[in-house]
Amino acid sequence: MPYGDGMSARTTRSEERRAEIVRAALEVIAERGYRGASLAAVAERVGLTQQGLLHHFPTKDALLVTVLKERDQWDAMPHNQWRIDLLCSLVEYNAMRPGIIQTFSALLGESVTEGHPARSYFTDRYRQVRADITAALRTEYGDRLPNGLTPERTAPLLVAVMDGLQYQWLLDPESVDMPGAFRDFLRLLGENVD
């Protein structure tokens, strides 16, 4: 076997193991929250020692950042391609993956505390999401929505509704129709949704 083939196989195995660790970390964080999740619990779930896990992720914070970035890859939408109708699709998609939404929500809730390792991640993420939604609203409506609000004033409301609905749905999925309630909110903005 040529030297390069062995390196390629080891790299692939290492990448597969890292992906397995990230999936396990998502599960553990969803169950216990970030503060309650331990590297030992994640390692146990993937059949590694804690030392073996540290070979792939040197700190719990490094693992958390990877988990958050991985989650964002599933929802990736180029910054200049947001559209209001796609937000409905995103809400419907989220309703099909409660574990991911639970992890995101748990981390978001914990990140508001001083010194939390995900605080700057979520601060930057929300800043970017508000900017993207503002741009999408401006493209759709111009400087004023049918209800009279500006895109800048509407974007934080839209994000708040999306995230607030996620929390309500996670707590009581039988009573909260997350996609339906989001479409209702868009109707309040003057959007024609079916």
UniProtKB/TrEMBL annotation:
Q: Which residues bind DNA?
A: 38-57
Q: Which Pfam families match?
A: TetR_C_6 (PF13977), TetR_N (PF00440)
Kindly state which keywords UniProt assigns to this record, in alphabetical order.
Answer: DNA-binding, Repressor, Transcription, Transcription regulation
PROSITE patterns named in the record: HTH_TETR_2
Q: Which domain of life is it from?
A: Bacteria
InterPro entries per the record? BetI_C (IPR039538), Homeodomain-like_sf (IPR009057), HTH-type_TetR-like_transc_reg (IPR050109), HTH_TetR (IPR001647), Tet_transcr_reg_TetR-rel_C_sf (IPR036271)
Domain HTH tetR-type, residue spans: 15-75
Quote the protein name from its UniProt record: TetR/AcrR family transcriptional regulator
Species per Swiss-Prot/TrEMBL record? Streptomyces galilaeus
